[in-house]
Amino acid sequence: MTAEEISAIVEKNGPAQGGLIAILQEIQARYGYLPEDALRVVAQETGRSLVDIYGVATFYRAFSLEPRGKHLISVCLGTACHVRGGPTIAEEVERQLGIRAGETTADREFTLETVNCLGACALGPVVVADGHYFARMKTSMVKEILDKVRIGLDRVEVDTDQRVFPVEVSCARCNHSLMDPRHVIDGHPPIRVTASFGNKHGWMMLSSLYGSYEVASEYEIPPDTIIHIFCPHCHAELIGSSKCGECGAPMVPMIVRGGGVVQICSRRGCKGHLLDLGGAASE
Amino acid sequence: MKFDSVDKILDFAIQKEQDAADFYTGLAGEMEHEHMKDVFLGFADEERGHKTKLMAIKDGKQMVSAEQKVQDLEIGDHLVDIELKTELSYQEALILAMKAEKAAFRLYNDLASATDDANLKSTFLGLAQEEAKHKLRFEIEYDDSILTEN
Amino acid sequence: MRKFASVEELRDFRRRIISDGKTQEEKPTIVISADTGAQASGINDIIRLIKRYILERNLQEKVALRITGCHGFCEMNPYVLVEPGGHFYPKLKTEDVPRMVEAAVGGFVDEGLIYKEPREQKKYPCQDDIPFFKKQTRTILGENQRLDPIRILNYIEQGGYAAAEKVLSNPDPEWIIREIQKSGIRGRGGAGFPTGKKWELARASGNGRGQKYIICNADEGDPGAYMDRGVLEGNPHAIIEGMLIAGIAIGATEGIVYARSEYPLAIKHTLIALRQARDVGLLGKDILGTGIDFDIDIFRGAGAFVCGEETALIRSIEGFIGEPRQRPPYPIEKGLWGHPTCINNVETLANIHVIIDRGAEAYAKVGVPGNTGTKIFSLVGKIRNTGLVEVPLGTKISEVVYDIGGGSVGNAKIKAVQTGGPSGGCIPANMFDLPIEYESLAKVGSMMGSGGMIVVDENTCMVDFAKYFMSFLKDESCGKCFTCRKGTQRMHEILDDISKGKATLEDLDLLEELALVVKDTTMCGLGQTASNPVLSTLRYFRNEYERHIKDKRCDAFVCKELVGAPCQSACPLGTEAWRYVAHIARGEYDDAYTVIRDANPFPSVCARVCHHPCEERCRAGTSGGDPIAIRSLKRFITDRVDPSLYKPQRVVWTDGKPPKVAVVGSGPAGLTTAHYLSLQGYKVTVFEVEPEPGGMLYCAIPTYRLPHEVIRNEINALLDDNITLKCNIALGRDITVDGLFEDGYKAVLLALGAHKSKPLSLENEDADGVYPSIEFLKALNMRGEHLAQGRVGVIGGGNSAIDAARMALRQKDVNSVTILYRRTREEMPAFSEEIEAADQEGIKIETLVTPTKVIVKDGHLSGLECVRNELGDVDSSGRRRPVPVQGTERIIELDTLVVAIGEDSGIDAIGPARLSRIETTRWNTVKADRTTLLTNRPGVFAAGDVVTGPNTVVEAIAAGKRAAVMINRYIRNEEMVQPAEPCLPKVYIEPVKMDTEDASLAGRVETPRAPAEWRTRNFSEVEVSLSVDEATHEACRCLRCDLEFTKPKKVETETEAKAAVTGGK
Predict the structure, then answer these.
(1) Fewer CB within 10 Å: C terminus or N terminus of chain B?
(2) Could you read off the pLDDT of C1014-1053 as tens digits, one per residue?
(3) What is the pTM of this model?
(4) C921/B34 touch (CB, cutoff 8 Å), yes or no
(5) Three-state SS for C844?
(6) Is CATH 3.30.390 the right assignment for the domain spanning C566-647+988-1046?
(7) How many CA atoms lie within 13 A of B84 on its CB side?
(8) Which of residues 10-39 of A touch C (CB under 8 A)?
(9) Where are the alpha helices (DSSP H) in C942-990?
(10) Is residue C906 within 8 angstroms of chain B, CB to CB?
(11) For C123-151, how does the pLDDT look when each residue is reduced to its tens digit (9 = 90+)?
């Protein structure tokens, strides 16, 4: 954490008074908690007293003044979850992790919190682990989920997972196939395009497996860079009008063989994507 | 009795409820078991309650409505008629009551189909539904406390 | 999509896409709900696999996909809907995907996957016919189903922004406000302030000029409510359109959506929608060339319930602590940054485009006067069909709970609904006829609130429920008002004491007083309503509070400090099941026997026929797995340990000659009393009308469940020098109560049982071949008579019906046995294991049939006329009663008919009681005090079935134990009370060290039974004992709920030490 980073966050969310909660939210999202030094910078930049900021930071449940664990487990204790046995689930998680709600394990792996309602009331009891929801929880499921969280819930075995499958694409302008049979990524021919950012202009190969984010490129692309992608055959830019649902960057459309459009986010590191099949309209 | 006005019909119905109340009160007096006396006195109270409701209808304070169809569990329909004696069981008392309410229900339905006057017809049908409601109460009690299946 | 420069362009665009859509050939569409709930249930995997299947099979031209928000039927997640045809496929698994897609492509219904009503097993090929959907009016939720929330095109195609178009083509704020007023819509956020009125005030505020704000309150803080999430995730453009119209109406140019941070998907979809609306020119400067400016920002809440309160919400946007302030001035006059601010709820705003588009009059036709339109409820908790439900206001609660919600889950009865979140209250089940209107709910002590409707059943403790809300409120109170801050805390403390059995009845009064003070002395909505959870539960469920305080019992088995180990507190005898199970795990069988026998003088009997409430409450079962087979473990011990090993403690009567006590009836209740009185030194005479003792155990329980030898051994072990048994003696005939007192008995216990079957009261019931069930069972059990022959019918659905049927099947001249039951199989009161066993043995069970006539030929039964039933409407008790279907009469040919519709004590028992001036009831039972078991006559006690009506063996034993205590106190002239104490585990038994993984994965041991073919040929016992391995394994599965109470403290601190870092606040 640097003072510059914090200043940038303050700047971005508007140093005017109203931005304070958004500023703290962004700091919390980036560092997992609100470091004291960061709050001092915020106070300085916004012109509000530190005690004022401390008051806000401690009033709202979403903020933490202590570092959190690598993984966040939230057990819902909303009314519906409560009557369906939420407290027993919370106890089981406490037992498994050896901590109480609001605490972090000594190895900083897990933070456990209880929340008042996650709005998935019909499916209670509900647990959210690192953004993944688990419905109709039973105590017997707790251990298995914690084990999975340790490995990483986003991790996908591209070789064996049936949710991962190859997609063949072509250029929306010239209809030339974009598949590159001479190379292999994830065991399949990748998609080959031309990528341009800054003053760099070179090839880029993307895994053709839907669900894999493997990429190789001629130049190293810094994270968060928005890149322009061109068809290597007709040299037209692959660009549509839609924006990424995750980050708002432009989406890059490609035609799916057999019908449909796949769009990927043009921001390096963003996993935003859309796969429209069967003529679903794309704007 | 000739039914040429809604008021006359209601008078008739009110009298019928009073008769029923008198009947149960009389029966209560003949029961050997104290708890069965209470049962029939309770029935008599119910009938007097019905009477009060009909009187309110007559005074225009309340409406009869034939719109809502009352569920008929038909529990009493096939059961044997109860012979009056001094030692009746609760089961027998309920059968007696279910049958009496069903008879009243039929009577009003018959009277309804016998008249062409729309106003009178709807009054009769409304009364029939009232009786059906009374019967349902007894049926539910029979269902819950006699058909216990234990 | 490009920016629309004018209203006409938008209109033309819509026309074009609609006609394009029509000309496109009708392709089947798989509609997939992918809201947060669906994602929690794995819809993302299903979507992936559907796409994969379509790609691999090249089905792009044959089927379309639409990813939508929540359709409402969340219980069925993950589900899809196939259009046209409306095929609803619930709870899809990944392996179902190919079948479902093929059915969609092929235009047929997959019978295996299609929705079925669980109770009737009826298939519903079309969604509209499913009871859950049929009774709803899905104005808002219906839109969710029709569009993909991240595609503005979809929204426009479905008629979206048509209302905005209407308003923008001739902007007339007065007209908009008039329309909204005419529609009668009231704020959906809870208080129900008329929206039109609010807008009028907002318009007039600030002299109609200057900066104004419109805020969408999406800080859906009520736990248990998620309507707003459903709408924001599924149809964000409707909110944008509503805000745009509101903005034009009140003259605001800026809007803010205040959304909970706990709703990431709703925020994401709103952000996407805002971006799209800006891109096409529906937000921003000079909207559609009209010169109107309006834009919307999103503000993410940071987690504070009080921010749902409008003044607190504004403070929060301004970057301060979300404390409410005194009103007036209302935000309408002085709101965000001091400017007039109009705050509307998500659902209110979602209705705006409907009102403008369809007209206020059409809108006002839905619902009832004063409460127009539809309202979405989140129907959750202990109910079969959970989900979002949209009904016209004025709909009865019963329609929502039973018709749409499908009633209770399992067998537990629904107790109440809680509406209005922490500010609301409970409405008990007997008031479900109430129409859902703002005023009617307030009148009964609850409120509409934002629309949470949490159903609670018998397994929900109302004290715990109130405590839950109070715990929530004390955490969420902002602390500004002292009475709220301290009052909620104090109320929580009192509730906590009650839940722990530490409170007194005076505390209850204090609680009530405190609740009223907090209500009257706080500033904002949170504080003013904070007492509602307490006041409404006190109003309707005071008996539960008193039960906690006086009896130290939590009947819902929720309050831990009163429940202890659930197996123990579920047992009417308080048997420490956990303790003997622990001993079995350690191989200490003699200790296990002692634990069992200490509580129960009939261990071998109960090991066979107990209905094991311990297993129903076993936490291994209630937490999602299989309960421990406690009864089988008890059987294992009683089969293995010599009962003579157990030497009960005896008291020798020193005070002169021991008093005499008479016990009438030698069933489990009578003999238990005799046994315990004998241990106290009394001289007891037991009178039995039958030639052998045992009561129901001996007369009516079939020998294949309970061999006579087991009963005899158990009874012989109880009989001693203090007990005289006199058989063939009938009360009323051979002895009288007066006579017994004259003979010097100091007390008399009536334990006559319930030995009389109730008649059907059908004609010809007295024909040959028709038998009351008890008579039928007695003939066989006591005299070895085989009364059944040929085709046997048994009427009834309880245990005595199953007993009679299974006993009939074992008789030599019987060809077939059929059970005829009026209701559904799920409602049969018989133990499920008995029903299963009957099934295995080949007994036919016909449900939903009512007998109407006994057919007789030559004085002998020849058949039974029956009529088929269907389930009627739900009545106020929540039950759907059987209603005969006209014209379904048929005759079942029978040679034997057993009537088992219910038993009571009959005139044989009630007559003599009455002659002895003992009060009886209409249900043919003897009236006795619940605690003292005394009848109206001094010295005469009553216990067992003769008091309760037919009941279980273990209840009879429990009553017998209580009778012994009370008779002892009576004779010794002591106070007739048994002080209540929570039934908690007290002894620490070290758990067996083992690999926990093994234990949690392995399921319940199956109780060994003799093969069905073998069983039907004889009357021998069916259940067999567990092996040592089986028993050990089963005992090790126990979760040891007792340890929480008995574990030595030093073990506790070890785990404490593991938690090194504390986080949060």
Answers:
(1) N
(2) 888 788 888 889 999 999 999 999 989 999 899 886 544 4
(3) 0.89
(4) no
(5) strand
(6) no
(7) 10
(8) 17-22, 24-25, 33
(9) 945-948, 953-971
(10) no
(11) 999 999 999 999 999 999 999 999 999 99
